[in-house]
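Sharing a chain and its predicted structure for anyone who wants a worked example. Both blocks are below, sequence first, tokens second.
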Amino acid sequence: MSKIIKFGEEVQGYEIPVLNEREIRAAAGIFFVFAFTAVLLAILSKSLVLLKYFILAFLLDFIIRVFINPRFSPTLIIGRLIVRRQVPEYVGAAQKKFAWIIGLVLGLIMLVLVVFVNSYSPITGLICLICLIFLFFESAFGICMGCLFYGWYYGKKAKYCPGEVCEVKNRHEIQKTTGIQLLIVLGFIAFMVVSVYLFNNTFKEQPRNLFEILGSSSSK
């Protein structure tokens, strides 16, 4: 039974149980796609159907992760299959469990408010936004937002963080950002703002069928 109900894997060379960050990121990406689609559908069509199914799937997956074993989480299994050819990146299991408990609590609140009460409000909107941010940062940048709260809550540093962010060290030369690079980013933002100002009315025009455009051009 102890081999089934456990949290984290014993890996040689690591003092504490660890998890594979690569499959966690893959699973977060899967959840983000479905969460974003469900929230977008809820905003555009006022339908909470897909969001309710997502909440059920999210909760079941996180209950398995936290209370049984991450190895049996459906999305982590899919993530493991996706990244099976990549070298594992081990991270401490303790901070991941803390982060997933946060996700579980948010999921339970959504279950009550959205599924049971069948309601929407600024509360559910805020929780959706928080979940999307957490999932996006995990999948896109490898930054576990919930893991950051682990150190604040327990008052100690987590071990084996993704990208070794828990270790204090000087940045490599390739990681440093120059003033010119920052100016490029600001210039890019300015370009997009000017583009919106200049082309907004043009871009709002309804698109036409390409073949109708070609047909009308050839008939002239």
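Comments welcome. The two ends are 79 Å apart (CA to CA).
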